[in-house]
Amino acid sequence: MSTPMQAYAILEDDVDHAKFAKFAQKQGLVQHHTNPIDGTNAYFEDVWTTSDKKTAVHYVDDPRYELRFLWVRGERLREVLHEASKYLAFYDDEELLEDAGQVVTLGEGMRAVYRVGVGFPSYHPGAYQVFTAYLQHANPEMRRAALRSIAYHLWPESQPLLAQSASTDSDADVRDYAKALLEGSRQKHGDRTPPES
User: Is the pTM of this model over 0.70?
Assistant: First the structure.
């Protein structure tokens, strides 16, 4: 059995739930369910499907990561994303990576690395480079933000970065967070860190 196709589209700030719902209705998508922010759910999620139920479109507004995005999965992924690009503004992969390299403030940097963390569900060399750079930032808040970004999809390829932060970061909280993520990744994917020389 193959893994279903999926993609994440990070929405630009002016795309809110109302704009998404209007797009979904125009496309003939069928609302499946909504998960509001409450005691059991830390983010808002509105799930729609194509009429044949072969593709799901999740609109997510996640205040923990300060962003909104679409998570599209299923057979008609490309078609749905193509139509969405006509009505909804979202970042392409290159923009996500470029923005992460052009930040000025701590807040901008944190939002940029969060967008990279959510926007790349599987290993991408450019995203890996962003994580590497942000984990070397002088500010421990920025390093924690990079770790939170890695945690979103927790690629097995991120284990060397997590191991490095867990053993060498100057901030104890950052080291502890990296250790916890590394342990979680090893439980999920096995140990992917190279042996120490």
Answer: yes
